[in-house]
Specification:
By secondary structure, the protein is mostly beta strands. The protein has no helices and 18 strands. It has one domain.
Length: 215
């Protein structure tokens, strides 16, 4: 990973919440143009917290960027293959014998963003996200659907701003096709957080309001 790379762990906890609660975490605050048109954020994490008892759910995020080839035939984002990327690098996606492959990223001094060229013979769904902490696979945060042969996905800047919402009908690793209309309870720039933080989920029955506050 680069010198400014980081790994963050966030721990979400509740205790006798009083009501069942599903938390959706996503990276839907992006400056890349045409969100919900050219590309879509994923339901990055969905976690359940019960009304009674203690619940704790931890997530980890690595800032090591990656392009991913994804399969959405089941309606869920399934990882096929991926490649770690750095700003200023370009990779090419190819297909041979039903196997997909990303080329070794090449650095171009004239390129400041991160690029993926689809050189497969058909339209492909290409994701962008981060290498998992164990480096075994990659998590997909954004997906470009139906990228044509010869077309390029340009990621000018990925903002590691994680937002949390009351989740009603989203499943983890599915696409979010339009802006979320439920209350936003959480918004943090992961780059600014300590490496390990804990967040308490509470519910006020008098007002019907959920809150997420750092412990």
């Amino acid at each position: 990973m680069g010198s400014n790379a980081f790994v963050k762990q966030l721990n979400f906890e509740s205790n006798d919440l009083g009501i069942d609660f599903d938390l959706l975490l996503t990276f839907d605050d992006q400056s890349i143009p045409n969100i919900y048109q050219d590309y879509y954020p994923s339901a990055f994490v969905v976690r359940k917290f019960g009304a009674d008892g203690h619940y704790r759910s931890s997530i980890s995020f690595s800032s090591q960027s990656a392009f991913t080839k994804v399969d959405l035939s089941s309606g869920v984002i399934q990882y096929v293959t991926g490649v770690a990327m750095q700003p200023g690098q370009t990779t090419t996606l190819t297909e041979e014998g039903d196997a997909y492959h990303f080329s070794t990223p090449q650095t171009n001094p004239a390129v400041t963003n991160i690029q993926c060229i689809n050189n497969a013979p058909s339209e492909e769904d290409i994701g962008f996200g981060s290498i998992t902490v164990d480096w075994n696979t990659a998590n997909t945060a954004l997906v470009w659907l139906g990228v044509g042969q010869g077309q390029t996905v340009n990621v000018e800047e990925f903002k590691p701003i994680l937002r949390g919402y009351i989740c009603t009908d989203f499943k983890e690793n599915t696409l979010i096709k339009s802006p979320i209309e439920t209350d936003r309870l959480f918004e943090q720039n992961l780059a600014a957080l300590e490496d390990n933080t804990t967040w308490n989920i509470t519910y006020d029955p008098a007002t019907g309001v959920f809150s997420i506050d750092q412990a």
